[in-house]
Amino acid sequence: MLKVEGINKKNANRRSFLKNGIAAAGAVTVGAGMMSSGLSALGADREHGGITEGDVAVLRYLAAIELIETDLWQQYNELGGQNAPDSAYKTGLQQLDGDMPQYIADNTDDEMTHETFINAYLTSKGAKPVSLDPFRNLEGSQVTEISGLASKKRLTNLMQLSVDTSWWTRYRSDNQNPDLGDTFPNAVPTLAAGKFPAIPRNNAELGIGVKIVPVANHVQAIANTAGFHFAFIEQGGTSLYAAMAQKVTNLEVLRVVLSIGGTEIMHFQTWHDKAGNAIPLTDGSLVFPDLTADIPQPESLQSNLIMPEPTVFLSKKLPVCSIIRPTATKGAAMGVVNDFIKDGLFIGQTPDFLAFLHDLANEADEAERELER
Ligand SMILES: [Fe+2]
Ligand SMILES: [Fe+2]
After folding, report:
1. Considering every ligand atom, which ligand is closest to the CA of 236?
2. How remote is the CA of residue 125 from the centroid of ligand 2, in Å?
3. Quick one: 30 and 96 in the same domain?
4. pLDDT, the chain, mean
């Protein structure tokens, strides 16, 4: 059995892989023992595509992000998805689009398959899958009208969100790009300024069986918050996968990242369209403005401008281009973790959970594409 020490060194380059006999053509048989980086000798077998330590770091980080997405989407699905009972909350969501419960159910399914696939792929390469089960610590909604819901432990908190809506104005700008240092105002400024529930916290906020419109103001505010949060989450995935694709080495890993990333874009596009239908209202400090296109307002807010406005890309000297934004790689993995923290998703989570996520993000951010492959 060949000793494979050094494989878990950060930024291990191709040289160290070769030196350790891992990826070299015709490498002597190495044991399939697991290394601490999560990459086993099997993972470097050319027949298995020879994925690098950086590839493993990116995939493990993405597996964690997908587990987080799955956890939050499951909560939305239980309360507002296709199989959720009729309620004022579900009706409130349907004010954004009659098909919202179906879309919520499908987005939930998609995230579960992303997480399951990436972990299975890692395992197939002899690398360690990611589990966040030890961190399912949080109390979720205390709705008792849905059997068993109140006792479930969660990874994410959807009841004190500060939802950033600058993606709305970012995708409507024709002369600015976050990758060139530009910043963007929120479309719904009050939503980023407080802590608001995006799911009903109790039976009263759920309003079981109620299918009357207009929905009570406060419940509609919760549904509106969810509508913008859906798009916030998925625009993050849209940029994240584009950034991570630039860091992987193995062509099959690139295929995995591009193929899953594309569905994040589809999710974002759908939710972007629906958020514009949020019912204008005021609920305490929370104000949802009317973003519909048929009132005079700047293009930076106009609700039917859901296609990415062509904007500056790479350099202001080049012609504008319709693109995903941002796509810069520097600190992208940690950036998403920090955005989730700012969003309130991890309120109540343990320092151990955050430390684990930070480690995965650091390793993904340190991954670099190895040009020789
Ligand atoms: Fe996903
Ligand atoms: Fe997603």
Report:
1. 2
2. 24
3. no
4. 89
Angle of helix 351-366 versus helix 332-343 axis, rounded to 10:
150
Ligand 2: distance of its center to the CA of 29 in Å?
39
- Paired strand residues for 107: none
Residues 94 and 44 in one domain: no
Mean pLDDT in residue range 85-93: 98
- pLDDT per residue over 46-68, tens digit each? 434 589 999 999 999 999 999 99
19 and 164, same domain (yes or no):
no
Encode pLDDT of 165-179 as tens digits: 999 999 999 999 999
Inter-CA distances, 173 with 38, 168, 225, Å = 42, 9, 23
- 253 Cα to the center of ligand 1, angstroms: 16
The answer as to whether 371 is a domain residue is: no
Instruction: Provide the β-strand partners of residue 196.
Output: 161
User: Is residue 373 in some structural domain?
Assistant: no
Are residues 285 and 143 both part of a single domain? yes
* 288 CA from centroid of ligand 2 (Å): 24
Residues 70-82, mean pLDDT to the nearest whole number: 98
